Amino acid sequence: MQMLDIIQIVIAILLIITILLQNRGSGLGSAFGGEGNIYMAKRGAEKFIFFATIALAVAFLGLGVARIMLQ
């Protein structure tokens, strides 16, 4: 059981890092007309970080559900 705790903490830290590495310009300010950028496709490292964030979020959620089921 303790191994799941350690794995979930590591995934949580990695998830925080990948979220912080994403583009900072696409925040809430653009909803109020702060930016006039058009949508551009993700390429290279930005695309990898985007998919890594999704994978880490799914893994974090899955581990959380697994920990609940094992209790």
Which percent bin holds the helix content?
Answer: 55-70%
Order of helices and strands: HH
Tell me the Rg in angstroms: 16 Å
Helix/strand structural class: mainly alpha
Largest sheet: none
Mean pLDDT: 83
**Shape designation:** elongated
How much of the sequence is in beta strands? under 5%
* Oligomeric state, counting identical vs distinct chains: single chain
Distance N terminus to C terminus?
9 Å
Number of E-type strands: 0
What is the total domain count? Answer: 1
Number of continuous helical runs: 2
- Enumerate the spans where pLDDT stays under 50 for 5 or more consecutive residues: none
Describe the structure.
- The chain crosses the membrane at residues 49-70.
- It comes from Candidatus Kuenenbacteria bacterium GW2011_GWA2_42_15.
- This is Protein-export membrane protein SecG.
- It is a multi-pass membrane protein.
- The chain is mainly alpha-helical and 71 residues long.
- The protein is elongated.
- It has helices spanning 2-21, 45-70.
- It has one domain.
